[in-house]
Amino acid sequence: MFGKSRSLIGLDIGSHSIKAVEIENRGGHYAITGYGQTGVLDDDESRAQALSNLIRRCGFRTKRVAVAVSGKSVIVRYLSMIRMSDDELEKAIEFEADRYIPFNVSDVVMDCKKLDEVQTGLELDSLSEDKMRVLLVAAKKSLVVDAVNQVSKIGLVPQIVDVNAFAIGNAFELMCEASSDEERSEKVVALIDVGAQKTNMNIIRGSTSYFTREVYLGGDDFTSTLSKRMGLTEEDAEKLKRSPGDRESEVEEGMSQILEDLGNEILLSFDYFENQFDSSVEEIFVSGGGARVPFLERNFERIFSRPVQSWDPTSGLEISPGNYEESELTENSLQLATAIGLASRVRRHGS
């Protein structure tokens, strides 16, 4: 029904923390109506208990939830195929998939989507008129089932299982839409989300993703490197990394090599993208807990030779009063891109 409000919880279950954001669709504009996050220990029992406690504490208005999967059991491929209808594509991909997926096709959940090069305006690597670009995503069924069971056990109702990198893209798209930033939404941008154990990358233009990658370096590697270089315990290195104070130059030097390693891996991906498509990455946006390192942006700018900035996925969204502190939401907004991107699917997913 037109004008009907509906809500969705975006649930980002990370290796060190769980973030949950509830977004309500109010007839075409969007409001954050719930938020919470908590640290977790890296074992299934502790994670399940922490998740249950968090959901109970947040007092969300809905039980509908979107979750994400990532890692080596998730495969994303950008394919060149003979141009065909959507119905033909659905049938053809079943026969083509085993060429691109390193698992038994019967063991995965698959989805595919045409990429509309006319809409996006990118020149797709010399495709002939009879070819089209297709996005193929596959995840092991066991991974998807585990994600669904994890939330079902505590009374939530799973609606969507997405991929982390795409969720980040959805959050950025929502921010541009909510902020009426049409100029930015037309640029080719790289979204870099630096998590604890890995960094997710998504190169997009508008609502279309053209390249995704996971780099298995992140905030934990920053801490470990700093600990070794400065002779600190992991706990003290983590605190110093987050708040270096007047020791910032010393901390930056201690982390210089790991930042260089991560930056160079990302730069290789930019080179690949730019060789495949006759288009350059124009802007780079960083998010995630690892992006809170105060000197990360300037190091990335030096490595990439182009502008880098952090971004706030809550920008432009209405913040409704709820069972949370708005100041905490603002303080942690840099870490919420995945959760907000998942919850943003309320735009397309009815009740």
Explained architecture:
With 351 residues, this protein is α/β, with parallel strands linked by helices. It has 3 domains: 5-71 and 143-180 and 312-347, Nucleotidyltransferase, domain 5 (2-Layer Sandwich); 74-141, Dna Ligase, domain 1; 215-308, ATPase, nucleotide binding domain (Nucleotidyltransferase, domain 5, 2-Layer Sandwich). It has 13 helices and 14 strands. The protein has helices spanning 44-58, 86-96, 117-120, 141-152, 164-178, 182-185, 219-230, 234-242, 248-254, 256-276, 296-304, 326-331, 337-343; strands spanning 5-13, 17-26, 29-39, 64-69, 74-82, 108-115, 131-140, 157-163, 188-194, 199-205, 208-215, 283-287, 308-310, 318-319. Strands 8-4-1-2-3-14 form a 6-stranded mixed beta sheet, with helices on both faces. A 5-stranded mixed beta sheet has the order 11-10-9-12-13, sandwiched between helices. Helix 11 (296-304) links the parallel strand 12 and strand 13. Helix 5 crosses helix 13 (337-343), helix 7 (219-230) packs across helix 8 (234-242) and helix 10 (256-276) crosses helix 11. The termini are close together. The mean pLDDT is 90.
